[in-house]
Amino acid sequence: MAEEHDDYRNLNERLFEWRREILGRMARWDELATLPTFPRVDLAREPGTRVRVDSFLGTVNTDRVADVYFPVVDAAKGRCEPGAIPFATEAVDQPTLVELRERFPLAEVAGTGDDVSRAVRLRDWIKSLFPHHTPYRMPEWNALLILDRGSRGVERFICVHYSVSLVQCCLALGMQARMINLHRSIADNYVIGDEATADPPVDEHVVAEVWSAELGKWFMLDVDFDCHYERDGVPLSAWELHQAYVAGELASVRCRRGPYSASFNAYGETLDDEEGFFERTLPSYYAHVSVLMRNDFLADPDGPVTVAHLVDADTGPVRWHRGSDLRLQPHLLGPVVVAEPYRDDVTLLTDGNLRTGWASDEDDVEHWVEVTLAGPRLLGRVVLHWPEYRMYYRTSACYRIEACVAGAWTTLVSAEQPVEAPYTVHDVDAAVVTAVRLVQPAGGGFREHPQRLWLNQIELYGPR
């Protein structure tokens, strides 16, 4: 059993945390102000503190196209040959996919023929079911739910939900597919709601890619605009369209539009320059191409998502969702921009929110988190909050805590195989420090992912 520390989060403070959580979920903001406050000062949350990390599980920037555009060996069995970035696939007998096949005439809609023809028919059919409209709630990535509500006129959805539906309909028929996120540009700051009118525009779009066994390649399908792009009669992947866009070769690319490509949204709005939109404006979204490196969102709806962003001479690296581990976020894509220029700082590790977290990549190397304080501070306690996922708190098996004292790093704590716990408290000899570092040696993570350092919060306090 984890060691209790009565002087850390005592009964009154725990009740305060519970009440704050409950009132926040109930949106009773006026009552939040009436909750008691406590004199405890978390040095890691002082203004001017900076937190840096070595890597991100949720964000991978790579110029190795083969790691992202890997071959599919057996689409029906989900057998792929990914490179350095793993790709998790959904099983065709997953219960929701089975029900999806039973509830909707997917095989009849897809018909016979090659993978491109079948996937295009599915695309056109999904777009015919409901017009684009911001949903009342951001639903789970579940095509059964989306198509059921959309086809019955209960609710309408946006590009991400069209794409989820196509991906899972393809999976249900034994074709491999995945989600693609696009950004016209990337910026640190923008006004929420004005992404499309910012200078430069930073709005995003979501499409899908499907594997063609006949062509031996991935090809892009845009359900929301009911179209795809071809060069010399061959459908293009998202990255191939990116290359044509940045090279100024769009004249050699042809947009193939389905019967519902002009039916963009529920308001009945029309495009000012329809031909120019499909020939020039829509391809501009492919300035940044990010591939979600898993499609098993039914089997594991809450799990971390690795987003692989391809970079080249025209495309700089990005950081996804403030550097989070990308768990529990149905709003991951759209309608708010979620990517920004890459940097290695993560304010979310010291923002007090135990429902979000960060994870390192899973390379067989040392991983670390470094907190640089606002100035010299007297340190006496370090508290580490571990993420909860699939029944377990992901407590690292081995790590050390270091502090910068008088300009030199010194080890304060060396932990070997600590017990699983929601949080771990380390009391250390009081010292004036300017920075604190958590270091996990190679292989020192939780048993199910020993190469990953996974953390929700780090708190720093003075002596008791």
Task: Report what the structure shows.
By secondary structure, this protein is of the alpha+beta class. The chain has ten helices and 23 strands. The strands form seven sheets. Strands 1, 16, 19, 20, 21 and 23 form a six-stranded antiparallel beta sheet that branches. A six-stranded mixed beta sheet has the order 2-12-11-5-6-7, sandwiched between helices. Strand 17 and strand 18 form a beta hairpin. Helix 4 (95-103) packs across helix 8 (159-172) and helix 7 crosses helix 8 (159-172). It starts with 10 loop residues before the first helix and ends with a strand.
- Fraction of residues in helices? 10-25%
Tell how many strands the DSSP assignment holds: 23
**Straight-line N-to-C gap:** 23 Å
Largest sheet: 6 strands, antiparallel
* Helix segment tally: 10
Could you tell me the mean pLDDT? 92
Residue windows where pLDDT falls under 50 for at least 5 positions: none
User: Which percent band covers the strand fraction?
Assistant: 25-35%
